[in-house]
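BUG-234 | component: ligand-complex export | severity: low

The export step for fe (ii) ion jobs runs without errors, but we want the raw record kept on the ticket for reference. Input record follows.
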Amino acid sequence: MIDLHCHILFGVDDGPQQLEDSLALAKALVADGITRVVTTSHILEPPLSTATIQQGIAFLEKEFADQSIALELIPGGEIHYTVSLEEMRTHTINGGRYLLLEFPHGSLPSSAGELIFSLRTAGLIPIIAHPERNGSLLRDPGLLEPLLEQGALAQLTAASLAGDFGSPARQCARFMLKKGMAHFIATDSHGADWRPPRMSAGIKEATKLLGKEAVNKLVFDNALTVIEDREWND
Ligand SMILES: [Fe+2]
């Protein structure tokens, strides 16, 4: 499987702090069925440089080769909504048109629709990270609809479906899945112990709701479209 959201690079955000923490997370991802992972370190102001991300990837790739860890790393970022559009463009997934967009956890900013419109106008496709954990959307998941109509996509966190973020986030994630408001399931994992990958547990829950075929589309086909930068067909 492909994981579109993962904090695997060490020493750059609230993910792993040391090499061994990254390696432990990598092994946990592989054990969870992941073969390719997008490195989505937090991109805030001042943003991480793409050179730092590339160096982090190159370093881990060498370690993975030495330790026979079969996990491919793909560049990206979890981009905070306040980052400039020019900067967002430099942190897209695999250098393509898709990017992972982070809104504040408390509430949805009033500028959300405007930002999505600007990104789409600029030829970029925002993927809203974990909408099921946003305060406004937890209260009213229907608020996601107009953002999707403007051309945004949405990524649920597998651990939310598994109940790790509590019952409200789980219920919200289930609602979004059933209503067809979610396009991806990813781990948003930060370590082997704290916020570990829970892809298989999340998929199990999603499969109960949607069936195997629909879930395969979310975790294989849709994710592949993104990393290969293919046109979105829904
Ligand atoms: Fe994240």
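Assignee comment: Attached the raw record above. The chain is about 45% helix and 15% strand.
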